[in-house]
């Protein structure tokens, strides 16, 4: 059951691009869309949380959550009692029905100020993934997924922390979502004012948003002989 | 039709808190939930994009989009041809059916590194809103909404740009969503390692993420006599 990350229906993982589908071809600004695999991976790897959408009692639910990527497969985790995890697990009559999801990742890179109100925008990069998430039941894949989740927060971190024990593993459910039906979208550059507005007396340009992190805050109870590890200095 | 921002069903806008519902009481970490109106407004006002979820052909769709707030009402906008806008408008047989949505806003404030992999987390603040979005048909409310959208990107900006003209207004559709069924959730502080892990030799603490913006980038074609306005210096 889906234990081979990289197996996709619509495009070979070795190909450079995802195959567009009805759901991943945008109705607007199609020139901003991309199906390039490396572009999609880079956007996914840079963000800290995704927004996971699913349908519950006919209504949409969108929750922010951590995730990790291993090749062509994403993982999200949660308590075994959480709603999306329970829904993906199914009932005893209906094993592993999966959960139809839309997983979206967005970076806001800058604020775009135009002379005209209409052309105000943001510079962004986003990835939208449609598909069916399945519960990960293979213990080896579950461990791999949890390592990926920790390494997504800080690359290299999973090797420098105590791995989950049997009790923690049992309390954690993991969903997998294969990268099949995927698109990226991005806006870059300055404002696109109409020619007749160029003489208006309003400042126009881009406010780039800050990235990166501030100074680390060690735990109050951290032993004084524990130095900041290299992978954090490189963050 | 919904032309009075602030009219809510489940709680008076004058009350300090939103009334919890089945959908806004979390199954997990209920101690992190809040229904405080000022807390919710502050989280909404600080973010640049929301993630708007809706159901299309039975499947979830989650799209990042700009938004604005006026009192107890949120506005999102888009092309009159965009899918969620068309869906909210309905057909000639079914006028103004609205579109059931879940609108989520998330700030990632810091990365939480624990001694144990299991307790890795992020510090975040999020707001989740459930409700039915309706198309704004009143011209006056539509203008107010578009001003709110621009001022959400940069407070004070709508007064310093050319307002939308008739053609631009006609090409833009606006959805409103009242703040009725709303919850906030937040995690703050350091890692919550188990007592037996405190002696492990792993660095533990928080990596605070940077906020704010880098130096402004004026448009290449900006007239040299146009100075940076005060509201941008205060950003």
UniProtKB/TrEMBL annotation, chains A, B:
Q: Where are the residues of the annotated region Disordered? A: 1-31
- The UniProt regions of compositional bias labelled Low complexity, in chain numbering, are 7-22
- List, alphabetically, the Pfam families matched: Pyridox_ox_2 (PF12900)
Question: InterPro entries from the entry?
Answer: Pyridox_Oxase-rel (IPR024747), Split_barrel_FMN-bd (IPR012349)
Q: Which SUPFAM superfamilies match?
A: FMN-binding split barrel
Q: What is this protein called?
A: Pyridoxamine 5'-phosphate oxidase family protein
Organism the protein comes from: Streptomyces venezuelae
Q: What is the lineage of its organism?
A: Bacteria, Bacillati, Actinomycetota, Actinomycetes, Kitasatosporales
């Amino acid at each position: 059951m889906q234990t081979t990350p990289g197996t996709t229906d619509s495009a070979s993982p070795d190909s450079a691009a995802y195959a567009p589908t009805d759901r991943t071809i945008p109705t607007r600004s199609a020139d901003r869309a991309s199906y390039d695999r490396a572009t999609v991976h880079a956007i996914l790897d840079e963000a800290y949380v995704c927004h996971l959408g699913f349908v519950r009692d006919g209504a949409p639910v969108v929750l922010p959550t951590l995730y990790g990527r291993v090749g062509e497969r994403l993982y999200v985790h949660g308590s075994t009692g959480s709603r999306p995890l329970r829904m993906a697990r199914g009932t005893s009559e209906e094993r592993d029905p999966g959960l139809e999801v839309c997983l979206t990742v967005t970076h806001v890179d800058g604020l775009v100020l135009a002379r005209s109100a209409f052309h105000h925008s943001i510079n962004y990069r986003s990835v939208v993934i449609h598909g069916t998430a399945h519960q990960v039941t293979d213990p080896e894949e579950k461990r791999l997924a949890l390592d990926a989740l920790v390494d997504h927060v800080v690359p290299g971190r999973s090797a420098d922390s105590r791995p989950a024990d049997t009790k923690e593993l049992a309390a954690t459910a993991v969903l997998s979502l294969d990268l099949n039906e995927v698109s990226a979208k991005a806006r870059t550059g300055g404002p696109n004012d109409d020619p007749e507005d160029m003489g208006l007396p309003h400042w126009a340009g881009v406010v780039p948003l800050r990235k990166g992190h501030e100074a680390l805050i060690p735990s109050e109870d951290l032993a004084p002989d524990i130095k900041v590890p290299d992978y954090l200095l490189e963050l």
